[in-house]
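Readers of this paper often ask what the protein records in our data store actually look like. Such a record has a labelled line for the sequence and another for the backbone structure tokens. The tokens are whole numbers drawn from a learned vocabulary of local backbone shapes. We quote a single record here, exactly as it is kept in our systems:
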Amino acid sequence: MTTELRVLEPAEWDEWYGMLELAFGGVTESPEERGLYRELTEFERSIGVWDGESCVGTAGAFSFRLSVPGGALVPAAGVTMVGVAPTHRRRGILTSMMRRQLDDVRAGGESLAVLTASEPEIYGRFGYGVTAYATRATIDTNRVRLTVPEGTDDVTLRQADPAKASGACEAVYARRVTTRPGMLARQPGWEKQALVDPVSERGGASPRMCVLAERAGEVVGYARYAIKPDWSYAGAEGVVLLKDLEALDPAAEAALWRFLCSIDLTSTVRIHSRPVDDAWQHLVSDVRRCEPTQRDALHLRLVEVGAALEARRYQAPVDVVLEVADAFCPWNEGRWRLTADATGVMCARTDEPADLALSVRELGAAYLGGVSLTSLAAAGRVRELRDGALVETSVAFGSPVAPWLPHGF
């Protein structure tokens, strides 16, 4: 039968989401998780492909505001819930959904789209570049010591119920968002994501816990974590599973890390996702024993090149003509002159000779300042057409802190 692509109706959600679960291996999520994602679903931004009465493709988007270099919060489509039925692969269904979605994002006035990828190689052909990475690590707290900054002992820690402390944690998070590119301003409802804690997903660990860092009665940081008990013949070897941590100053952050690394009956702190320049790496005595590794975290696409490049700020003055290739969104094709200094930013179409040539995928990778244009050029993905343009532009696009996505969506 001929497939039909249409906007999702609320009555279709269970079948639509069930197809998504099938595409991801057929594992059914807990009622708590399902309930949260149904609540968060933006139906007008969710589409499905139907073959007769059966849903065979899903894609959605969340309305986010993304922190970019300079501290602005830019409207961005958070692409999510993308899946194709195993029986309908290689039929152009994914391409049709990406086409419809990017057209809708453009029509809605958003200049950026972002996603996390189950398979990173999929989305490059749709113009997404890997713009932020995350570090995972395992700190051996039996052999690694922490050196903390002055003022750490002035921070007091208080155990708190995660649900009751949610408001205080969200207030800290909100103050942190604009300090690091890639962070998402949480819309109402998203605070619940950190509280969903089904027993079926704990893998033998404790319920989620929360500790607050306070100074003079003000909450200045928090960590949410769980503990997975373990024992050997030699004694306790429990694991601290860090869920998330935010702090407003170095002393508060160090106090939280010191706490996590000194919990009784544990010998390891397992970090799932932290910024690649995170402070803990400079607190520990031996980073090798923490075994840090990196992986892609956030993929970004410029939906409207001019508006997107004007939305962020630049580390240094720049005046460059970019020759942009974008086969999937041809309205971005062509030459754009980007000029930026302390007075502002302007990006407009031009007929002037190009200084750099690259695709929209490379622009997406470099957009948040964590991936340098010089490194992309070394891989042959950016071409310098005017001597000196590459270094000048790469410096301007940089960020003093690494971009990072604090949670998935």
